[in-house]
Amino acid sequence: MRIVVNALSARLGGGQTYVRNLFAHLPDSDDLEVLIFAPDQLDLPEDDRIRRVRTTWPTTNPYLRTLWERFLLPAFLRRTQADVLFCPGGVVTTRVPRRCRVVTMFRNMMPFDPSVWQRLPLGGQRLRNMLLRRLMLKSLMQADLTIFISEYARQVIEALGRIPNPVTIPHGVGEVFRTHGRAVPRPEFLPSGEYMLYVSRFDVYKHHYEVVTAYSNLTESLQSRFALILAGETNSLEADRIRSLIVDRRLVGRVYLLGGVRYLDLPAVYHHAKLNLFASSCENCPNILLETLGAGRPVLSSNVMPMPEFGGDAVHYFSPDDPEDIRRAMEAVLDDETYAERLGAAAAERAKRYDWALTSKKTWASIFSLIERRPEE
Question: Of 8, 143, 159, 200, most Cβ neighbours within 10 A?
């Protein structure tokens, strides 16, 4: 059984986290060989059944990568007699050999969310999302197996076209993030004192602006007790807009832009927060929300789907467009220690539903089943 994985688009945190965990839980099978195309910075486990394949064609540019997928990858599939081409990025432009099956995933919700489109400036970003919408929908409708990572996303796509063989397999929570009840050293790079935390890259649909505005409307007493830390890469126009807001609202020294945080440092950062926020209004399977649950700290989240699908009744929800609603949610936890403790315990319990070992087991089982159902020549 030979599976070729095209993970060249996994250049950011979420995509790389998925691939790492999928390969870390490769099922026991001697009759298995996995050939993977992936960015050099994506670490893979040591396993004789896994072989990284590199191409001399430049694939960092998405347009050049598409040409490689369209015209050169098919020859590789024929030469290696691949049984499956797995494209976790969601776009498949490769014409595969007749007996090779195609597996893809639906990960990117943005091209299918009109509310996000309205926030984007006219120009390249809107055009890119229009093209992605068409390519992704075509890929999902033609794949032999489509993996959805939330029921919400599956419903959205199935309303737009027939998906031949769908399955829903949500992402997991890594063991390093299950810190509830454990002694975890506080990172030295954190500001002193208690803090609220929001981990996310800066973008308009992540609603940092509303979160900071909500914080600015808290009482002086709460602001003096609890800082607000925003963790995420800050080389963006949206981050610049947040910096200006911090200055305008006189929040310097109370609201901190921490910048990017190493993945392995995140569990401790979540763990020591008074509460963890997640304000995004456009997600498919919110990895950050799942990770915050594992810390066993109170979680405040956007009430936009699919966040309630994953947080259930273990999370306090707010409208991400309404700074006053976010402020009320903050106060509900900061002013009530009993409620905060109850929310934290519920979050840790909820996190037990999501496990990378189970995610991987279901994923590989679905792929193997597809091969077994393939008609003989």
Answer: 143
Residue 158 domain boundaries: 2-172+356-372
- CA–CA dist 99, 1 (Å, integer): 12
Pairing type for strands 299-302 and 145-148 reads unpaired
Classify residue 377: in a domain, yes or no: no
Say if residue 267 is in the same domain as residue 131: no
Query: What HEC string does 242-309 produce?
Result: HHHHHHHCCCECCEEEEECCCHHHHHHHHHCCCEEEECCCCCCCCHHHHHHHHCCCCEEEECCCCHHH
Rg (CA), the chain: 22
| Domain CATH number, residue 269 | 3.40.50.2000
Does residue 207 have a pLDDT over 50? yes
| Type of residue found at 103 | V
Closest to 113 (Cα-Cα) out of 325, 320, 351, 293:
320
User: What does the DSSP 8-state code read for residue 205?
Assistant: G
Judge if the upstream peptide bond of residue 306 is cis by omega within 30 degrees of 0: yes
- pLDDT tens, residue by residue, 276-328: 999 999 999 999 999 999 999 999 999 999 999 999 999 999 999 999 999 99
> What is the largest distance, in Å, between two alpha-carbon atoms of the chain?
74
pLDDT at 271 exceeding the cut of 90: yes
Nearest to 290 by CA among 17, 1, 16: 17
Cβ-Cβ contacts under 8 Å for 187 (sequence gap 6 or more):
265, 268, 269, 272
Same domain assignment for residues 163 and 219: no
> How much of the chain, in percent, has pLDDT values that exceed 90?
82
Is residue 186 pLDDT above 70, yes or no? yes
